[in-house]
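Collaboration report, partner site 2.

Our partner group contributed sequences for two proteins of shared interest, and the home lab folded both. The records are reproduced in the order in which they were received, starting with the first partner submission.
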Amino acid sequence: MNRDLLLKALRNTTGAALYIFLVSQLMANGSALFGKEDNSLMPFVLLLLFSLSAAVVGGLIFGQSLILFFENKKKESVQAAVYSVSWLGIYTLLGIFILMMLK
């Protein structure tokens, strides 16, 4: 197990989880922040936010793997991807557990 790679994956996945949390809070409180009027610009902005989120989270989760892959460190690249997805799974399970406890 590559400890340095594991910690980098934890750092990047934590950043992704925080970003996802902030976007979810923006969406949950959107009507309070932006008003309740039906605006034709809203679908455009939401699609832009979705695209930005895919790029940011994809970069945070798989960016280290891509860097390692292009440095011809294929074994470490796969390890980084597995570590990142595993941390994301742990965060997901933790979120589900917290929701169940708050029920």
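Second partner submission, folded after the first:
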Amino acid sequence: MSRVLFLLLATAALAASCSGSSVTSSAPSATVTDGAVLLRWNPVSEPNVNGYRVYYGTASRSYAQPYGQGVVSAAATTTLTGLPGGRRYFFAVTATNSLGKESGFSQEAFVDLP
């Protein structure tokens, strides 16, 4: 098991409406085990945030999921499985609220899958 920590600092706190602000995350991490990637980030403290979306791809800021269709996570953690090895993957997180709005992307993390 290899453990890779990434420090992602957002540029601004998430606005209550999730209208284009970045997700705040002071110490996210990624752990790679047997080809699975466990991502963790600090939860957003805004009262109307009800979940997160995780985006990933093999090029920086070019994700396999269109905006609004990231992998849904109710908690500030998710595990991604089935990613082919031998590649570098880039990850970003958004927050969603009870009105269906989504924040801008967090700063990006990356991990090399063996």
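Feedback sent to the partner group on the second submission included the following. The chain has no helices and eight strands. The two ends are 11 Å apart (CA to CA).
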